[in-house]
Amino acid sequence: MVLDAAAAMPLRLTVNDAPLELQVPPQELLLDTLRERLGLTGAKRACDLQVCGACTVLVDEQPVSACTYLSVDADGCRVETIEGLAAEGRLHPLQRAFVEHGAVQCGYCTPGMIMMAKSLLAALPSDADDEQIRLYLLGNLCRCTGYAKILDAVRAVLRQGQTGSAA
Amino acid sequence: MTEYAVVGRRLPKLDAVAKTTGETVYLGDMKLPGMLHGKVLRSPLPHARIARLDTAAAARLPGVRAVITAADTPRVKFSFVEALADKYLLCTDRVRFIGDEVAAVAAIDEATALQALDLIEVEYDELPCVFDPEAAMQPEAARLHNGASNVAWEVHQEFGDLERGFAEADEVFEDRYETSRVCHCCLETQAVIAQAHQGGRLEVWAATQAPHTLKHELDRLLQLPPGSVRVHYPPIGGSFGNRLVADMKAPIAAILSRQTGKPVKIVNSRTEEFETARTRYPYLVTMKTGVRRDGRIVARAARVICDNGAYNDKGPSTVASAGVTFAAFYNVPNVRYDGYIVYTNKQPGTGFRGFGNPQVTFAGESQLDMIAERLGLDPLELRLRNANRAGEAAASGARPGTCPMAECLRQAAAKIGWQRRRELPPNRGLGLAAMLHTGAGARMYGYNSASAGLTVDEEGKVTLVSSVTDVGQGAQTVMAQIAAEVLGIGLDEVRVIGNDTDLTAYDLGAWGSRTTWVNGQAAREAALRARERLAQSVAAWLEAAPEDLEFQGGKIFVRGAPDRGLDFAQAARLTYTKRGEPISETGRFVDELGPTMKGWGDVYPTFSTACQAVEVEVDPETGAVRVLQAVAVHDIGQAINPMAAEGQVEGALAQGIGYALMEELLLDGGRAVNPTFADYKIPTFIDVPDPQVVLYSDPDPTGPFGAKGIGEPGLVPTAPAIANAIYHATGARLRSLPITSERLFTAMREQPAAPGPRRAAETPEPPGGASPDQRADGSGPDKLQR
After folding, report:
1. Chain A contact for B189, CB < 8 A?
2. How close A108 comes to chain B (CA, Å)?
3. N or C: which end of chain A has fewer CB within 10 A?
4. How far apart are CA B644 and CA B695, in angstroms?
5. Domains in chain B, please, with CATH?
6. Chain A within 8 Å of B320 (Cβ-Cβ)?
7. Which fold is adopted by the domain A93-159?
């Protein structure tokens, strides 16, 4: 919901490499800024409590739950959402791997899961074991897949040594 | 095994790319011009009379466009089963559970709508409540509705002669099991948009698994002339049975839209979802089983008490479905099933993956291990001696056409290493459970048919119009693979549309593991007709008879002479341009037994079977259980897309682990105490092992390319397999779900210290270890206490 704009504060940030200047109320959540103001609906609202990961986006490369993150705290930051991941029509290796490994069912958790996995690629060594991958992705819930094929997809990309560029 | 070009291939789903890029538009992402936001005022009490209801202040709030109460709704009671109607669209004078719909508002945004709810004044007079279904059955219990008792519906079926069966048994076992109230936990909460048009039509965008059913339900709820409703069903963020029956948000949004002239959207908050979206029905199951000394089950009776909650929903179908399966499972000659659905002042239940079968199978398959122990038989061997076999009719008359139950049991045991049962380190256990389930929907609603339309355009691209509801399982992709196989083209050449009840013929929706079997046959038929049309069209150019043409690899050619042919696209172009003919065909699948179904033997067109085996480790200090390994061998007939089918089993198995070990919506005085994902835990990445899924192929001649459904079975045997493994590890037999660490810890403390659960004292020879085909000799006294 877009709250009362009377007390709005200036907010400068880049979203998927596009610089933006906005006026947002101090209590506005990053998820609402993205979904309602910017029309970026890839990040989903699902728990409102920072426990399911469906709203995961990256702020200065760190994964955050946009459902509990104040937009004004992203001032001066670089925000990445699922919509910015595929470059010039080419899917990111994670996106390709999720498709090819059958890691997508209803798809509602997928954008958040992929953004979390993107930060995993930067955080874990390419030979990280399954237990490390599982622990890293622990905060992203999926009700459809049972996680097996998501693990397969993330492991496959991690092994390629990709670090998140959409090469 | 027949080799196919597209069927049986691990192909990515048609909608997968859009779901990884964030482009897929779910209902919550949709905005229509002028759209208003609706919110529902819900009862804060489990049972009360509405003494006063005043909406004036709410209506005056700036930004509020409409406030409605029961006075604005048709005075007609509703339920999924019309004869069991018991619920008004909005409560008239009485509320029956915490969350019951009392009033609703539409406003310019959600914040205003929420603010308006606070301004609605309601005074309640509290009424006596009843929460325990057994207590609710007593004559003195407070009544929820006007019936003679709180029993909303009951079913009684007997096949064979139960008394004689028990008299012939060497041992009779009777145990009571209890299953929990679990939530579907779709990551997308329930949502709907309704737009009432001036001309009288009602257009609805709904996250539903049963759009055509919803269309009729809205006609009834709103007392509209038949045919008024058009339902669009966009991609849905999970369903699992939760989106089968109309939720009151849809008719509420429709009335708000009619009053305001604007589209109205209502979305559940997560807490609303936990408190009101409807849950799996908790069952109390009393299971009585009579066996011969050799392990043959000769009589079995189940008495099921289903906690209905405050209103009827899918209770009758889940209780009856579980009974239909119970009456066929293991071919017991004398079998009886008694089911009661009982009102309580709680959130209603609904269907949830397995439709009552997981509840009753938990009881039956747990008890079977207890029986095996008493008889000194290996649990695997006991099941093999009773396994259903293809073509053998059960006492109910049900006759599985194919049924590799014994093979599933043997493979699951071999893969988990069943012969290790006596050599496991401390606190480890192995357990298994089998199941029988429908592989093709059910005929109990009098209809189990479908149709599909198929167009080959002038460029050779194929559009399949299918009524399937793709809930993420890949139904549209499976339909496309079937059509592509028939036409000899690649999956990329096929597009699937549907998602609109004005576009598709009546269809029961995505439930009962029915889509592949039912809709797949319609898609196949449509493709066959298009192929016939094309063959007739190009036969003259190829100087061959139409029936001598092959469709393969994107070409149409004379059988045995691949050079004498043309491209599929070229054939399509010629048909349009030279013959002036469009290529547009309809395929129908007609299940003739739908309308004429007589009894329990006819309900399921075909059965599917499975065995799951697990290895668990129990922490003796805390009672915490970890599932180390899980094997799931599932009879699928023929997988149309093995990757998607595995995904169904893996996902269901994970839900089964949640059902077994951690999930329960806890109620205190009818109020949910854990209605968030922080407090209601579902399995995460570290709770689910990487399972070994085996799709057992045994083509079913009734299914498209031999296929059966696989949506539900993966959850059915998981909880008893885990309970049996926990018993094996600890000697503690838990008869209630979920088996939380606290419950297991307490149970471990309460049981006699000696001889301990270790295996030296337990089962006799396993049936053959690495080659588990051999039978156990059945010797070896059992020293464990039951």
Report:
1. yes
2. 5
3. C
4. 11
5. 16-23+449-590 (3.30.365.10), 31-127+187-239+243-276 (3.90.1170.50), 279-442+599-761 (3.30.365.10)
6. no
7. DNA polymerase; domain 1 (1.10.150)
Structural domain A9-84, CATH architecture: Roll (3.10)
Nearest to A91 among B17, B29, B678 (CB): B17
* Chain A residues 101-160 with CB within 8 Å of chain B: 101-102, 104-111, 114, 130, 133-135, 137-149, 151
Q: What is the pLDDT of residues A92-128, one digit of tens each?
A: 999 999 999 999 999 999 999 999 999 999 999 999 9
DSSP for residue B78: B
Q: Which ipTM was obtained for this model?
A: 0.95
CA dist B206 → B261, B473, B630 (Å): 19, 18, 36
Take residue A144 and report the two structure tokens written for it: 């459809």
- Flag if A91 and B685 touch (Cβ within 8 Å): no
How many angstroms separate the first and last alpha carbons of chain B?
A: 45
Nearest-CA distance from B373 to chain A in Å?
Answer: 32
Task: Report the candidate in B665, B564, B597 with the shortest Cα–Cα distance to residue B183.
Answer: B665
pLDDT tens digits, B304-350: 999 999 999 999 999 999 999 999 999 999 999 999 999 999 999 99
Nearest Cβ partner for A107 among B24, B647, B654: B24
Please, are residues B431 and B724 in contact by the beta-carbon 8 Å criterion? yes
Residues of A in contact with B269 (CB under 8 A): 48
Q: Are A142 and B658 in contact (CB under 8 A)?
A: no
CA distance A146 to chain B (A): 4
Tell me the two tokens of residue B310.
């405050």
